[in-house]
Structures are given as structure tokens and as C-alpha cells.
Automatic annotation (TrEMBL):
PANTHER family: RIBOSE-PHOSPHATE DIPHOSPHOKINASE FAMILY MEMBER (PTHR10210), RIBOSE-PHOSPHATE PYROPHOSPHOKINASE 3, CHLOROPLASTIC (PTHR10210:SF45). InterPro entries: Pribosyltran_N (IPR029099), PRTase-like (IPR029057), PRTase_dom (IPR000836), Rib-P_diPkinase (IPR005946). GO terms for molecular function: ATP binding; kinase activity; magnesium ion binding; ribose phosphate diphosphokinase activity. Residues 233-350 form the Phosphoribosyltransferase domain. Residues 90-204 form the Ribose-phosphate pyrophosphokinase N-terminal domain. GO terms for cellular component: cytoplasm; ribose phosphate diphosphokinase complex. The lineage of its organism: Eukaryota, Viridiplantae, Streptophyta, Embryophyta, Tracheophyta. GO terms for biological process: 5-phosphoribose 1-diphosphate biosynthetic process; purine nucleotide biosynthetic process. Keywords: ATP-binding, Kinase, Magnesium, Metal-binding, Nucleotide biosynthesis, Nucleotide-binding, Transferase. Its EC number is 2.7.6.1. Belongs to the ribose-phosphate pyrophosphokinase family. This is ribose-phosphate diphosphokinase. Gene3D superfamilies: 3.40.50.2020. It comes from the Eukaryota.
Length: 399
């Protein structure tokens, strides 16, 4: 009888005789009996390295023996895990999003940029071509879109509807800014909720081999808009606020920051992500034909106050909020919005505070690169600073 390896509990090894109904090629023990035998390696003091059980059937009596762990199986398992984690994605993009697409690809070796030829016919309608369409069969495919104006939506929708039908394993549409988000409800008969219209269009993107399209949107204006989408699309709602939190930690006065919300809507959207900061809430009231921003709760005195909202258009509300906070003693005032839309160059209204007078300007105005045309306009202009969504999008593509 063989002795058990040292430093291990002793397992009795039985000598089993074949029955009349058994042959040498037939195992005598049921599978569940074999799995009950295990022992650690004699070269290790830990019990992590398990031995397996086998039997010698061409001898009489039959002996049960212990076999060391199969390292090749462990390596195969590790390799399989690595392959699962390294999901490869083919990323297409519209012309406006080229710079952001390149930053996303630089975040991961498993994201490969693919090109589309954007042309037009003589009548102005799109003449489009997807390069190496056969090469994306069986691949995970994504498209980075920008619906910055109605004029560019149709050509991108044509591509978005075509890609899932090329036998791809899965399809993800990344639309950082959902442009019709502010038109989400009817206030009187005859109003058209264009947010619902766009959601219906995107809900009818063809299903790929892997199932419904995944739609990635950052800081949608109204949270209830998630219910506008049909079952053929899986909306994934992300936020740019984590980028702001990381940036605030880098500031020299990071321990003196308060977060201000220009209205109750902004507070509802973002306060849970920023709840560890002192909070200031403002509200807008009507006086005649004017809208005036007032302090609802919180104390800005002596603080570096950062106004947080999802988007900015004309910027009137942010400027009114800035003036009110300055009157109540804020030492510095900055602002963050995920989507810097700024139609008609309205970004020119925002001045840089260079002399410690918060009533005259902002220390920082952070935006993301969800609206690429704005990024080009405010580049290298203070107080603007762009926080890129590239790392957040790259992470989402690997879900």
C-alpha cells in the first residue's frame, strides 16, 4: 500500500478486485467516487495545488493512484480567460468624430479603426461605401456618431442601418450627445416631441447576429427618455461627471470646492454622483418677462463653486447663476457641462477670471468632446478645458 505524500491528510487507498462483469478497459469506480480523492503536492505547504485520481485497470488487483495537477490545463484555462477579456472591436466613425475616434483607439490595442467613404451624388444625397465589408463578418462592430445638425443625420443613419446586416457578432452605436433631448414633452396641443421621434428611429436599427443594438449616450437631458426606446435597442446611459470628479481632485484647492446646481432638474440628475461635496441649489423664477436665478439652499461664501449641468446653449442661465453666486461671496466660480453646444458662437460670452473677481468671469469652464465642432472653436481659449470621453467610451465598448 502506498503512503500518502508528506504534509497532507492521509487518505486510505483501497485495493479493489474486478467483478465478473468488468473488463480491464472499464473503470471500476463511478465518476463521483473518483472526485472524492485529492491531495496537495508534497513540494508545497499549501492545499491550493490539488492532485487528481486515476486507476490502473490492466493489473490485478486494480490500484488507485494519485496524479499531479495538469499544468497544461491550467494554462489553457488562463489563456481562455485572457481571450474573453480581450474583446476586439472594429470602430467606424463619422467625419466629425475622427479626432475622438483616434483617442478611443489609443486607449486599447483591441479597438481597430475602420473607414467609411463619405461622398455625395450630384443632387447632394449620400453616396457611401463601407471599406472591407467582408472583413467585419463575425466581428464586434461599433459606430461613433455625431448628430450635430439635421443635415448630417440621414447619411449616418444609412450607415447605422447597414452595419448590423453585414453578419457582425454585435453592433454598438455610440451617440455621446442625444441632440433632441430638450424637446421631450408636449406643453400644448400641436407640440412635437422630437426626442421621441429620434428614439423611435434608433429603436428600429436592424438586429445583428448577436442581438439588439447597444446604444451608448452620455448624460441624456431627461432621464425619462430611456422609456422612449423600443425593445430592439439596449440603451446604455453613461455620464461624464466621473471625469469632472477626477479633474477636481487635481486642483490645488480641491478641499474647498462646493457644487452648485442651476435648477432642481440638474440637482436630480447629478447630486448622487457629487454628494460628497457641499451642495448649493439655485432656482429660476419669473419676474415679468425676465427669468432671475436665486439661491435656494447652500452657502457659497469663500468657496470655489463649480456649477454643474448637462448642457449649455446660449449660456444665459449659467451667467445669471455666476453673478448670483459672486454676490453671495463665492471666492472662485467654475462651470462644467457634459455637452457644450454653444449655437451661434455663444461661448464668446464666457470670460476668464484673471484677477480674482468671480463676478467678471470663470476660473475654469469644463466641457467634454461630445460636441466636436465646439471643441475646435474653443481650443486653447481660456477658461475652456476639454475633458475627453475617450477612456469612458473605450471601456463601454468592451462590455
Amino acid at each position: 500500500m502506498s503512503a500518502a505524500p508528506p504534509h497532507c491528510p492521509s487518505y486510505p487507498l483501497k485495493t479493489l478486485k474486478p467483478t465478473p462483469h468488468s473488463f480491464h478497459s472499464t473503470p471500476l469506480l463511478p465518476k463521483h467516487a473518483l472526485t472524492q480523492f485529492h491531495c496537495c503536492s508534497s513540494s508545497s505547504s499549501s492545499f491550493d495545488n490539488r492532485w487528481t485520481v486515476d486507476c490502473v485497470t490492466d493489473s490485478n488487483p486494480i490500484h488507485i493512484i494519485l496524479k499531479p495537477p495538469n499544468s497544461s490545463l491550467s494554462m489553457a484555462s488562463s489563456s481562455s480567460t485572457t481571450l474573453k477579456r480581450s474583446k476586439k472591436v472594429c470602430l467606424f466613425y463619422c467625419a466629425e468624430m475622427k479626432a475622438l475616434a483616434e483617442r478611443i483607439a489609443s486607449e486599447s490595442d483591441t479597438i481597430e479603426l475602420r473607414s467609411i467613404t463619405w461622398r455625395t451624388f450630384a443632387d447632394g444625397f449620400p453616396n457611401l461605401f463601407i471599406s472591407n465589408a467582408h472583413g467585419i463578418r463575425g466581428q464586434h462592430v461599433a459606430f461613433l456618431a455625431s448628430f450635430s445638425s439635421p443635415g448630417v443625420i440621414f447619411e449616418q443613419l444609412s450607415v447605422i442601418y447597414a452595419l448590423p446586416k453585414l453578419f457582425v457578432s454585435s453592433f454598438t452605436l455610440v451617440l455621446p450627445f442625444f441632440p433632441t433631448g430638450t424637446s421631450e414633452r408636449m406643453e400644448e396641443e400641436g407640440d412635437i416631441a422630437t426626442a421621441f421621434t429620434l428614439a423611435r428611429i434608433l429603436s428600429n436599427v436592424p438586429i445583428s447576429r448577436g442581438g439588439p443594438t447597444s446604444l451608448v449616450v452620455f448624460d441624456i437631458h431627461a432621464l425619462q427618455e430611456r422609456f422612449y426606446f423600443g425593445d430592439n435597442v439596449l440603451p446604455c446611459f453613461e455620464s461624464g461627471v466621473p471625469l469632472l470628479k477626477n479633474r477636481l481632485q487635481q486642483l490645488p484647492d480641491s478641499d474647498n470646492i462646493s457644487i452648485a446646481f442651476p435648477d432642481d432638474g440638474a440637482w436630480k440628475r447629478f447630486h448622487k454622483q457629487l454628494q460628497h461635496f457641499p451642495t448649493i441649489v439655485c432656482n429660476k423664477v419669473r419676474e415679468g418677462d425676465q427669468r432671475i436665478v436665486r439661491l435656494k439652499e447652500g452657502d457659497p461664501k469663500g468657496r470655489h463653486v463649480v456649477i454643474v449641468d448637462d448642457l449649455v446653449q446660449s449660456g444665459g442661465t449659467l451667467i445669471e447663476c455666476q453673478k448670483m453666486l459672486a454676490k453671495h461671496g463665492a471666492a472662485k466660480i467654475s462651470a462644467y457641462v457634459t455637452h457644450g453646444i454653444f449655437p451661434n458662437r455663444s461661448w464668446e460670452r464666457f470670460e476668464h477670471d484673471t484677477n480674482g473677481c468671480p463676478e467678471n468671469g470663470f476660473n475654469y469652464f469644463w466641457i467634454t468632446d461630445s460636441c466636436p465642432l465646439t471643441v475646435k472653436e474653443v481650443k486653447n481659449r481660456q477658461p475652456f478645458e476639454v475633458l475627453s470621453l475617450a477612456s469612458s467610451i473605450a471601456a463601454t465598448l468592451h462590455i
